[in-house]
Structures are given as structure tokens and as C-alpha cells.
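C-alpha cells please, single chain.
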Amino acid sequence: MLYSRILMAAGGLILAAPILAVPAVTPVQLELSHRLDEVRAERLLPLIDSFNKENKDVQVTLVRRGEGDAPKQLNLVTREEYSRFVANKSKFKPLHEVMREAKEKFDASKLSPELRDGLTDAKGQLFALPVAFSTPVLYVNKALFRKAGLDPENPPKTWFEAQEAAGKLADAGSNCPFTTSWPVQVFIDNVSAWNGAEVNDAKGKLAFNGLAQVKHIAMMATWYKSKYFSYFGPKDEADNRFAKGECGMLTSSSSLFASFNENKSLEVGVAPLPYHDDVYGAPKNTLADGSSLWLASGMKPAEIKGAAKFVNYVLGPEVQIGLTLAGGYLPMTPVARAAASTKLLGADLGGLKIAYAQLQGKGVSPKVRVAQIEQVRQIVEEELETVWADKKPAKEALDSAVERGNAVMLKIAALDAANVAPKSKGKGKK
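Here you go.
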């Protein structure tokens, strides 16, 4: 009884005592903008959710970016948008500055060098992070290969072998022996690099109308006439056609292997991008490309700290393995790549090894990538379509693309010069 009274009294004291309010910590809200398709965006959500659970003081929300929208704190920039973001660098804060101001450890040299290309300034400092990169490879539909009497475990290594395979696929009834997505990236940038050809001259002018490029486009024109090559537009419709089992061969991003492999109705094989065996020293190396993370200027100190924390989170080996499994993207660091090699099995690992073997060839990365210069890419797409339509021969079309492209490059250079020029001072004092 006494014990009960003591408890009641104690309870009364507790209830009577003033409760000191603990101020709730309001987390920093960051938005990650993107222009990915629904499937790829959905595959990013587990990464975002995992970060938010681990970091209660920072919360990241994935939002779709519309044309002309102002940048968010975090921005996932695709290959097609690259030139526009470079042209508006003042709206973004270089990655190395964000990490320094946030006092977060960050060593850019730990990133694989083939992935840093195109994202560093004159001093070699990163201004953006290569988050979702890949490189073009060759995919084969194993079922269609067997139907045509071809060995799917021994896919074509050269473009001549690919032509022979396309012929057999056509003879076996295939309406789409070969196709490609992103033809400028594959046929111009990567076929050039893979075969040791330049896309610009010593003065920096575009020059992708050389022998190697003309020969390849001319060959594709004959394939198109022979119905060996099916063209489905300048973007990624070819990927969808291949995924439906319509095409025997596809050249496209190595990141697609994950989704292709999940497709139970598709038996797919992956191989290196074919090369021209009559070119001395080929193959050289292909190019890594994809989506990079850009950080907005004008962020508050707390936002800078949060953004830096997100960057380091993305660089974690486990997160990168998750990105590889979910989206087929290349791990950003040798440590993450080694970790992926121990956790990925079978075909997944095989596709990753093929992609890296291509990137680590004996060629030199070009200073110019045609597919990353939006206005030029559109010009080249137009000219290539005149070749497929048999309106222009390959040489004339590429000559025209180079001439028109260089005119655009001059305008871009003039605008850049105007943007960096010092503002004129007032003409007089009052």
C-alpha cells in the first residue's frame, strides 16, 4: 500500500514537472533532378531510399527535370544534355569545390581514369561526377543466331564477320539482322576511337569525314539497302526492338545487359564492339559515356554539406555494386570494380569485363566527342539519315556534317568568349 502511494506521488511529481522540449532537427532537403526514362528512374529509387534511411539530417528527393528548368541542388545530366550544361557552367559549382567547402574527404584520382575523361578542368580537377557510365558493345540474339546456323557463343569480332552474320540472319528470315541505337555515339565517336581515327584535327576543328568514318558509313549504307541494317531513329528505339526479339544484333550501351538478361523471353549474348580488321593497330579503345552528377551553385552551407555527403555515399563500393546490378553501370573506382567482381556472377560479370576491356585499350581518349555537342549531334543525325534514304553518298553527307558542325562550333566559341569577357567600364564619371 505504501509502495503504491510512493509510486502515485512520484508519478504526480513527474506529471507536474515541466517537460523540456527537445528541438526537432529539420533535415536538409535536396532535390536530385533527372531526365531518365521511367525504368531507369525507378531503378534509382532504392539508392535514394537507402541514403535517406542512413542520413536523417539530409533527405534527397528524385524529381523529373523539364526542358529549361532551373537546376536543383543535385542534377543527373545525360549525354544529350552535356553541351548545354557545359555552356551554363556558371549555374553549377565544381564538384571539387563542393567537397572542399564541405570538408569531406574526396580523392578524384581514385576514380577510374577512363571515366574521368570529359569531366575535368584544365588542372585535372573534377567538375562533375561520372555516376552512370557505360560504353557501346555488341548484343546478339542467341535464338536467332542458332536459327541462322550461327554459333551464338562465337559472335562476330569484326565488321566483316558481322556482315556475314547479317547475311545468314537475313537468309533465315530475319527482318532485322542488325540495328543500332544512338548512331552518332556508336558510328562516329566510338567506331572512330575503336579504330584509331580522330573526330577533330590538330586545330580542334571537327574532322570525322576521314577514310575510316566514310568507309564505315558507306558500309552501313549498303547494309541498309540490303536490309541487313534496320534504322529505328537516332535514339534508343532500336533497344526496344531488340528486347522484343525482333533483331539479331544490336550495338548499344553496355548498361542494357542487366535489363536484357532479366528478360526471360530473350536469350542474349554480349561481345565487344566489332572493329575493322583492315585498319592497322585496331582495335584501340571505346569511350565511356553516360549520366554525370552536377551540383548547383548558390547552395547554402548546409546544402553543400548534404550534397557532399550524398557524393561520398554514391562512391561507396556497395552502392556502386547496386548501381551495376540495377542499371548495368560501370563501377566508378577500381575498389568498387574489384568488389563487383566478387559479388557479380556469370553473365553479369562477363558483360562488365567486356566493357572494361574495351575502355582500357591502347588508344588515346579524344578531346572532342561529337555526341556530346547537342547541336552538332543533331546535324550528324540529319546527314546520316540522308545516307540511309539514299539521298547522299557517305562522303558527301559526312563532309556536309563536318562543315555545318564547324560553323556551329564557331558560334559556340564566340558565345563562350562573350560570356567570359570582362564587362566594359562606364564611359565617364559624374
